[in-house]
Structures are given as structure tokens and as C-alpha cells.
Design brief:
The protein has about 190 residues and is mainly α. Helices cover about 55% and strands about 5% of the residues.
Length: about 190
């Protein structure tokens, strides 16, 4: 079994999001965007409800998303950035009626159920395959993409390690799939 890869190329990230925008599949666009901008595991992402991201009394989006992670049973607080809020605005505007108890990524089957993990996988895989994005891309790629680009943008590895709740820096380095190309680039660009 091949190891899931982050989406390394920012152009590919834009193409993935645009793929679903062009098809007016706003739920799928929001799933990709929120997944890459929150670093949440797919199981936690799929359980989000509108009350987690939107304050219906004040008619505004929360500044932070607060989640009890399924895997670690730890509370995490995530600032919602501009791209995350934009995707949520697009999603909310595409829906006829939204209540706090509604799942963000509702299945078309049943009353108020989230899409399944396998459906989320199909959404991500379909876009990646259609756009010929190479690598082993899956739901977990969204989480890894966040960390990889945080690292590429100079965020200290210790901060990324804390975001992921990893036990060591070595775990984080393996997780981010830092490869020889990444190391080569450092040597070639750093001319002292």
C-alpha cells in the first residue's frame, strides 16, 4: 500500500478547488477547501455542523472552530482563515435552508446525514484523477497538504507538530513526506 501524499503544487490545489466550482458542486469544493485549511482528519471534518462554524444569533461565522478530535480525544481550536470562510459562505449561499443542526457536508441520502468517508474519498479521488494530479491522493492528503505548505511557508516544525498533536519532530517530518526534491531545493537556493 502506497503512502498518502500531500498536494505539493499550489497550482494543483487551485485546480482541484476550481474543478468543483466549475461544475457548481459547491459542497465538494467546500469539503476540499475546508479540509486543506483546517488540518482536520476526514472523520472530524464530516461531523461538522453549521453551529460549529456559524453563529446564527449574530449572523456571522465563528473566528475559531472548536473540535473534539475523534482519534486523540483532544480538544483543538482552529482559526478559520479567509479561504475557509469563503468556502463556507459559498456553501451556505448554495443551500435553500440552513439550521445549526445540519451537517456541513450533507448526504443526499436520508434526512440530515453527513456524506460517508467513502464518498469523501470518491470526491477527492475523482477530481485528482480527472486533473491528472500525480501521487497517492486520498482524504488524508487534505490534512497533509496543510502541514506541507505550512512547512514550505516557513512555519516552525515545532508549531506544525503541535497542530498535529504528534509525539516527535521525526513523526511530523515523515508525515509531511519531505523528500529528496525538497532537500535539494534548499541546497540549490541557499547560496552563501
Amino acid at each position: 500500500m502506497q503512502k498518502t501524499q500531500p498536494i505539493r503544487n499550489t497550482r494543483d490545489i487551485l485546480r482541484l478547488k476550481q474543478y468543483y466550482l466549475d461544475r457548481n458542486q459547491i459542497r465538494n469544493y467546500a469539503l476540499l477547501t475546508l479540509g486543506m485549511n483546517t488540518s482536520l482528519r476526514i472523520g472530524d471534518l464530516l461531523l461538522l455542523r453549521w453551529e460549529n462554524v456559524y453563529d446564527f444569533h449574530r449572523n456571522c461565522y465563528h473566528k475559531h472552530l472548536e473540535v473534539l478530535e475523534q482519534k486523540t480525544r483532544k480538544n483543538t481550536r482552529i482559526a478559520l482563515n479567509k479561504e475557509a470562510v469563503l468556502s463556507l459562505q459559498n456553501l451556505k449561499n448554495s443551500l435553500a435552508v440552513v439550521s445549526g443542526e445540519d451537517y456541513l457536508f450533507r448526504s443526499r441520502q436520508g434526512q440530515n446525514r453527513p456524506i460517508s468517508r467513502s464518498q469523501a474519498f470518491r470526491i477527492i479521488k475523482n477530481a485528482a484523477n480527472s486533473l491528472h494530479i500525480t501521487g497517492t491522493i486520498s482524504c488524508h492528503s487534505l490534512r497533509k497538504t496543510f502541514g506541507y505548505h505550512a512547512w514550505k511557508n516557513g512555519i516552525p516544525p515545532a508549531v506544525i507538530m503541535a497542530i498535529y498533536n504528534h509525539s516527535s519532530l521525526d513523526v511530523t517530518k515523515r508525515y509531511l513526506s519531505i523528500d529528496q526534491d525538497d532537500k535539494d531545493k534548499v541546497f540549490l537556493e541557499l547560496n552563501l
